[in-house]
Design brief:
single chain, alpha/beta, 2 domains, 12 helices, Diaminopimelate Epimerase, Chain A, domain 1, binds manganese (II) ion, inorganic pyrophosphatase (n-terminal core)
Amino acid sequence: MKHKPREASNRLLEIVLDLAAVKGHIGLFPHERFDADAIGAAVSLSRAFRSLGCRTTVLTDEQVPPSLLELPGLEDIVVHDSDRECPVFDFAIAVDCHEPHRLGRRGDCFLKTPLRGAIDHHVQQVEPSDLEYIDTGASSSCELVFEMIWDLELHHACPFFDHTIAILLLAGTITDTGRYSYSNTTPLCLRQAAFLLERFEVDLAELHYNLYERTTINRLQIKGDIFSTITSVAEGRILLAHVTQAMLMRRQAPDDDLSNLASEIRASEDIDVVFLFIETQDGSIRVSIRSNSCFDSAEFAAIFGGGGHVKAAGMAISDLSIEQAMETVAREAEAYLNRCSGRGKTG
Ligand SMILES: [Mn+2]
C-alpha cells in the first residue's frame, strides 16, 4: 500500500488527542546533533500537544549548541543522561528522522516505548509505518509540523500557534531551505511563512542574524583554516576539505555547525560534489556531502551507511584516519561521478 503522509498525520493526531484526555506523556525525539529544523519541530509540537492537555518531554542527546542559543522555547528540553533510566512515555515520536540509530544514546528510550511514530522529510529506505508521517516533498519537518498544528486549530477552533512556535517553525524552514534558496523550497512553506508573519510580530532581521551571521573571531579563523585545506580531484569536479581535532583546538572552536561550510564550498564554479571531513572527539570521521548535477548525495552516503537528501547528506566513517577516509571517499566518489555522468549522457 502506498504511504499517504496526510493519513499518517491524522493517525498521529488521533493518538495525541486520546492521550490528551488521560494526561498521557508524549516523548519527542529530535535526531542527534539536532539542527534548527529538528529542535524547532520538536519543541513546537511539544507546545501544541501541551495546550491540548498532554504532558510532553523533548528529549535530546546534547545541550543546545551555541548557534541555536538565541532561539526561544528551548529552555525546557531534557538532555538524556544514559546513566539514568529512560523517562516513561505513552507515545514516542522521532522528529526530523525516523530510524532509531539517528537518536544516538536515546535509541533505547525510543524503542522501549511500545507506541512509536515519526515526523520526517528525509528519504526512507523502507515503506513507512502507519504512524510515520514522512513526506520527502516537504521542505522541512517544520513544514509538516505547521500542517499538524494548523489541523489542530481547524478542528478545535482555538489557537495553538504562538509567538515561540512561529519563530521556531520559521527558523527550521529557513535553515533547511537555505533561506528559501534550495530546490526543496515549496510554495507551501512560503505561504506558511506569510501566515506566521501576518499573525505574529517576528523580527526577521534578528532571526537571520542569529541563524546565519552571528559569529566569533574563532569561528572566522577556523573557517579560514578549513577553506585553506580545499583540494580538488577528478579535474576539479570533486572538492575535499577537512578539519582535525588539532585544528579545532588551536582555534578553540566547537565542531558543531561546520556542515554549513560544505554548502559554502559548493558555491565554487563547475564542481559536482563537496566533501567536508570532520575529525570528531572519539576519532571517527564525520563527512558532510553537498552536491550538484547528477551526484546523488543520499545514494552515495548510503554506501558508507549514511543518508540524507539528494543534494545534502552525511555519513560517519570509523576505523580510518582522516587521510585514509579522504582517499577512500575520493576514489569512490570519482567512480560514482563517472557512472552517473554516463547515465546522464545516455538517458
Ligand atoms: Mn530537516
